[in-house]
Amino acid sequence: MKKKKNRNSKTKFPNLSQSVLNAIKQDPNKSFNYKQICASLGITDSSGRNQVIKKLHQLKSKGKIEEVDRGKFKIIKAIDYYTGRIDVSTRGTGYVITEELEEDIMIPKRSLGQALNGDEVEVYVYHRKRGQQPEGEITRVIKRKKTEFVGEIQVHEKFAFVNVTDPKISTDFFIPGREINGAKDGQVVLVEFVEWNDKQDSPNGRVKDILGEPGEHDTEIHAILAQYGLPYEFPAEVEEYTEKLDKSISGKEIEKRRDMRNTLTYTIDPADAKDFDDALSFKTLENGNYEIGIHIADVSHYVKEGTVLDDEAYERATSVYLVDRVVPMLPEVLSNGVCSLNPHEDKLCFSAVFEMDNDCKIHKEWFGRTVIHSDQRFAYEEAQHIIETGKGEIPVEISLSRKQTSIKAEIVEATLKLDELAKKMREKRMDSGALSFDKTEVKFNLNDAAEPVGVYFKTSKDANKLIEEFMLLANRKVAAFIGKKQPKKTFIYRIHDEPNDEKLGALKNIVVKFGHSLDLRDRKTVTKSLNKLLSDVKGAKEQNMVDTLAIRTMSKAVYSTNNIGHYGLAFDYYSHFTSPIRRYPDVMVHRLLQHYLDGGKTASEDLYEEKCEHSSEMEILASKAERDSIKYMQVKYMKDHADEEFLGVISGVTDWGIYVEIISNKCEGMIRLGDLDDDSYEYVEEEFAVVGRKTKNTYTLGDEVYVKVKNADLVKKHLDFWMIGSREEVER
């Protein structure tokens, strides 16, 4: 917890030079004397005026301002000023990313000024020696990335402080008494940024919402959502608008569509899924080929542009999947009701229908609006049982109905044929250079109070991969259908750039310690050796670490109107068409596709690029919230097992501690070097190890060790471990 500040002491400028500079920069075309600057800063005493005069001459000698007339100063518009976005590390050092320089600009903690993580800033670069990273200081905040923060409040008699939870925010917030809004000492609150005067060393804020007591389940889940600016309920006007929508399917509407209600159709989803936004249809044709339909809920039929519902869906851009709940993009009446492809109900869809032969060659393709009727809903486990046994008898233990079920022969045959085709498509993708990331997902068994009572791992099996391949097919073909049109049409692509060469080199250096190798000569050898690496580490102690590091070498997939292809999937054209219930880009893809099917002119590229950027940003925030909810549950689980010893693998080594991931539940925690009491340890970077100075005892990346919980911090979502010893020592 940060040290409380004494607000009764005389007000001072933490950085008078910067304040003077900011005052002059308010109008770059105007010159200022010291009296004007003092008036601007509210300085009235002679001591303060003398300090301003002194700072003016210091800034002049540094070449930041010029004296255009005696006692009159003006900013120098130098090439050393850049604008960009600042990323602040948890240690307080900032890095400004700007398009004008190849390298990021390093900002020491003392030079951050009033910038907060993610802000758009102006930076003055004062150190640019050849071969060294440029350094600078923040001279101005152009635009705040966010204005709401989560933290714990310390309430005093007439004011309060909020200590922000986010480790990348190094300042606290000062809250005047009138802005505490009923918050009690120690509660978790949402604080809104109000202002940050040059005279203050902390920004002023006001309490916008009280989230609850720290450590309580609902408090922490709501805090995760609030930290990333994600809502957890819909505005009343959106709910009201949605309730009034016409949800019936008229004969007139069916006449506009391809009627596929008599074609065998079914869904395969997780057993606990509440919304089903995709279905598959299957028909064997007279020529021996197969007609396969990928049917997607026609969300754009109900979510019309320019409505409050559409505005809300766009702002959210994605559903957020936390461990214990889903924060949907659309209200439940749509997401779980009218737009969900429930069995035995007529549903409006947007479909991609293909005629395919046994070698997966596409002979015909069709895209358009349909009406379907799902014959059956399957859980992945049920479909997997059909694939493994070739039979339609679903046992009680995996049946959705909780009783033994017999599946129609035609559905069994369709599933087996779709699985066969999916495996062939996957093999072709791999041969084309696609990457195979089957990272293990951590899942929790929760009790009625949403507390974790068990941890299990979710792996992708044939049934999952069957659905995946046909969704990939639809996404790829829709993108190619529009992308190849001439003249060019504005469209939304899912793009993925090539991996970072430096990160690939670092990964190669790490995996060689475990007996693996990477061939980085060209794109083909990179993908081939990456796939071999990911296959070789399956089941090995280093698997999760290697999987994680390999993913980090990759660029992030984003949405864009500028198609560069998708590296990871090895597709020249790729889009997101298959999940409009939970992803707004898919809604836009449906609208654009129908617009072009109707012969419409190309849409505005600038408008849709802006929407792509927003969607990509919201996707990142949602994934961070999802990751935080997993960390929170892991810490909660470990807190309840604090007396147990766990076998883990060293997943990271730094100069301040060793990171260990528990093998049985993937929970990661840190052992501080100072807590290794058998010796004094030092970090050896090139060895990915820490070594005892006297004993030469070594802990290296990938070593298996036994640990015990030292501290489980639910608020910070952080685990500290005690080292019990290496596996060899403990099991000896």
UniProtKB/TrEMBL annotation:
Keyword Cytoplasm in record: yes
The UniProt record lists the keyword Lipid biosynthesis: no
Molecular function via GO: exoribonuclease II activity; RNA binding
Keywords recorded for this protein, A-Z: Cytoplasm, Exonuclease, Hydrolase, Nuclease, RNA-binding
GO cellular component: cytosol
EC number: 3.1.13.1
Subcellular location: Cytoplasm
Main location: cytoplasm
Record domain S1 motif: where: 643-724
Any matching Pfam family: RNB
InterPro entries linked to this entry: CSD2, NA-bd_OB-fold, RNase_B_OB_dom, RNase_II/R, RNase_II/R_CS, RNase_II/RNase_R, RNase_R, RNR_Ribonuclease
Catalytic activity: Exonucleolytic cleavage in the 3'- to 5'-direction to yield nucleoside 5'-phosphates
GO terms, biological process: mRNA catabolic process
Function according to Swiss-Prot or TrEMBL: 3'-5' exoribonuclease that releases 5'-nucleoside monophosphates and is involved in maturation of structured RNAs.
Family statement drawn from the similarity comment of this UniProt entry: Belongs to the RNR ribonuclease family. RNase R subfamily.
Protein name (record): Ribonuclease R
Source organism phylogeny: Bacteria, Pseudomonadati, Bacteroidota, Flavobacteriia, Flavobacteriales
